Amino acid sequence: MNGKFWKPGTRLLSEDVLLDKNALDEGSLGVCFNPLAQLSLNQQRQELPIFKHRTEIIYLMEKFRVLIVVGETGSGKTTQLPQYLYEAGWTSNGKCIACTQPRRVSAVTVAQRVCQERGSTLGDLVGYTIQFDNCCSEQVTRIKYLTDGMLIREMMLDPLLSRYSIIMIDEAHERTIYTDLVLGLIKKILKVRKDLGVIISSATVDAEMFQRFFDGPQECSILSVQGRCHPVTLHYASQPVKNYIQESASLCVDLIQNQRVKGDILVFLSGQDEIEQFMSLIELEHVLVLALHAGLSMERQLQALTPNQDTKITNKIIASTNIAETSVTVPGIVYVIDCGVVKQRHYDPYADSESLVKVPVSKHSASQRAGRAGRTQPGHCYRMYTKQHFDRNLKTSTTPQMQISEATEMILQLKALGVNNVHHFDYISAPPTAIMIKALETLYLLGAIDSQTHLTKGHGTIMCEMPIPCRISKCLLEACDKGCGADMLTLCAMTSLTQIWTTNDAHVKVLDACKNKFAVIQGDLLTYMNIYHAYARITDPHQRITWCQENHIDHRSMARAVHVRSQLKKYTTKFKLKTNSLFHDDDAQGYDSLYSPSQVIVMCYLKGHFHHVARRNADHVTFTTLRGDQIVHIHPSSVLFKYAPPWIVYGDLVQTDKKYVMNVSMIDPEWLNNKQESL
Ligand SMILES: Nc1ncnc2c1ncn2[C@@H]1O[C@H](COP(=O)(O)OP(=O)(O)OP(=O)(O)O)[C@@H](O)[C@H]1O
User: Fold this and answer.
1) Same domain, 221 and 234
2) Does 19 map to a domain?
3) Which of 12-16, 65-69, 202-206, 499-503 has the lowest mean pLDDT?
4) In what residue span(s) does the Helicase C-terminal domain sit (predicted)?
């Protein structure tokens, strides 16, 4: 690292390593340099490295049925490949080109960009489809960006994807469950549809492995695209970094105060907690610091990626999880700071427990993160770890999620698509048998499949269609049956939020006082219901905002809860499920159950979370889970943190220094004996 980037005494990073052969000329650093911005959009398209391969791509697509395109980040795969094929006439038969994305935010931003390049309106020629938001027109949309999960949903209605002439699976290296599932399903479709073209693309994909999966070089060709838009200079830490949050914050301050290139900064951290901590450390005037993580509404995610228009703002810092790691281009980003960690879900089939664990990123991920710079101008990536750590400790590629995640949702989707023998499905990397067996057992206990492992006609089909995890749909189905469907709809919406309280601007004691206003001894679930009802009672939108501010509640999250609830309500209406409330309906007044309304709701929740029960230990602090004998603690954010009841049911398990359980409610162990049936 060049000492001039650092204040004396804070020099941290080692020598530069160049990602690109076009080494960045030190002398050019002083210029605010954005050559592509001077060109028309059409010229910009022709400057992209992939443009040189345009004819070859069109030819290979005619000759082979499957094409794997490997090219550097920013070379033009996502935005250009669908356009080339559109221009070559692949949609002239009225069919469409689909390009899948692992994340919603990239599906939307890429569609926006392509639309801009074609000079059309979003939703006309170019559109996107993500959960709860379909911006496409059946008649005119020919290039469609969609999440891989949505493509699977489309397959349920149209198993051969007959609307499409080309399916492009982008960012295949991410190996999400849905990407892998789409790959297996597409392979099946290719056996029937001889007219379908498939593209698999990534900057870092293991091309030969994909080629073998698609029956070798006879069927599947590989194209390698050389070069990138602009160089990115890599900087490594010269010694291990003790506190990467603090160090990234000081680096940001240093870059902004001493930088020779004016530009924005994108910081990769592992999660919302770290993002908030990081943001609290930056106190610079005229600098806009924005968070970007999956817990935010789409509107706020997109806002973080939109260039700043405020002339008073001199610099922008985006603190993000890996949500911004692939596909997105954030104009103006010159610096990327990579803390080298990611939160990953790990499922243990023996304990039937999924926990969120912080792990080092893979080399492929690190290179994707670096690739967020150098897209509209030359850039720098600062890695908060040593080169030695990169070489020795980082795995080459990301572990396929299918091998470390719970498989219930995936199996349910396969069953809905008519793949009954899920063991024999053609997986690109099959999940471990123990995970498969556990998933089948869980689906049976949830009533989604019968003893022959066939989807059940009632609950099974509804669970497949509901856009929520099957354990949550089980709670909802149970609640509709027990007269509290409306209350469970509220809980489904509230537990889908990742943030309810605005923690960064409130003093701990003030925040605790606010929480206590709504807290109830039964636990977090009923506390959430109190919050939702208090919010929903207010009808004026401005008053809602003021109320949220006064109570340190995130008003955007609450708006999202209202939205999610209304979306789920559409499904209960569609399936003619009763949505009464035990708290608010007139007919609940004659309620004469053995149990109180709050107990009935927690019992219904337990029906989907029987695997998440824990018993208090003799120390009156820790708990032992009934499945897997894990020692867990109640998370400090829970209202039951200080009052540890003897038995609990929880929603999530997070592992940091200890194992913490969240969304906790107290239960009576008697409820585990299926006594609810007599309600
Ligand atoms: N919103 C945008 N604003 C400005 N330029 C953009 C935008 N989106 C894309 N570009 C330009 O188009 C180039 C190609 O982007 P594209 O997403 O197609 O690349 P890619 O090869 O798919 O990258 P990745 O592997 O990172 O997804 C970018 O490097 C950038 O120069």
Assistant:
1) no
2) no
3) 12-16
4) 254-418
Range of the domain at 286: 229-401
Residue 524 domain flag: yes
Signed CA dihedral, 133, 139, 145, 150: sign only:
positive
- Indicate the average pLDDT of the chain: 87
**Nearest ligand 1 atom to alpha carbon 79:** 18
Cα 657 to chain centroid distance, Å, stands at: 23
58 plus 92 within the same structural domain: yes
Pocket (CB within 6 angstroms of ligand 1): 36, 48, 71, 73-80, 113, 203, 229, 326-327, 329, 331, 371, 375-376
- Alpha carbon nearest to ligand 1 atom 10, residue: 329
Instruction: Classify residue 455 by its DSSP letter.
Output: B
Pairing label, strands 197-202, 164-170? parallel
Cα distance between residue 179 and residue 170, in whole Å: 9
Residue 564 lies in a domain: yes
Domain count, the chain: 4
Q: How far is the CA of 186 from the centre of ligand 1 (A)?
A: 26
User: What radius of gyration do the chain's Cα atoms show?
Assistant: 26
Tens digit of each residue's pLDDT (9 = 90 or more) over 286-343 = 899 999 998 787 888 998 998 888 888 888 999 999 999 988 898 889 999 999 999 9
CATH number at residue 332: 3.40.50.300
419 near 271, Cβ under 8 Å? no
The rounded distance, in Å, linking the Cα atoms of 587 and 595 is 16
Do 201 and 278 lie in a common domain?
no
Q: Do 595 and 644 sit in the same domain of this protein?
A: yes
Q: Are residues 70 and 180 in the same domain?
A: yes
Nearest residue (CA) to ligand 1, atom 6: 329
Global ipTM: 0.98
Orientation angle between helical segments 485-495 and 555-574, nearest 10 degrees: 140
Domain boundary among 182, 197, 225: 225
The rounded distance, in Å, linking the Cα atoms of 382 and 399 is: 24
Between the CA of 79 and the centroid of ligand 1 the distance, in Å, is 7
- 525 in the same domain as 413: no
Predicted TM-score (pTM) of this structure: 0.84
Q: How many CB atoms neighbour CB 673 within 10 A?
A: 9
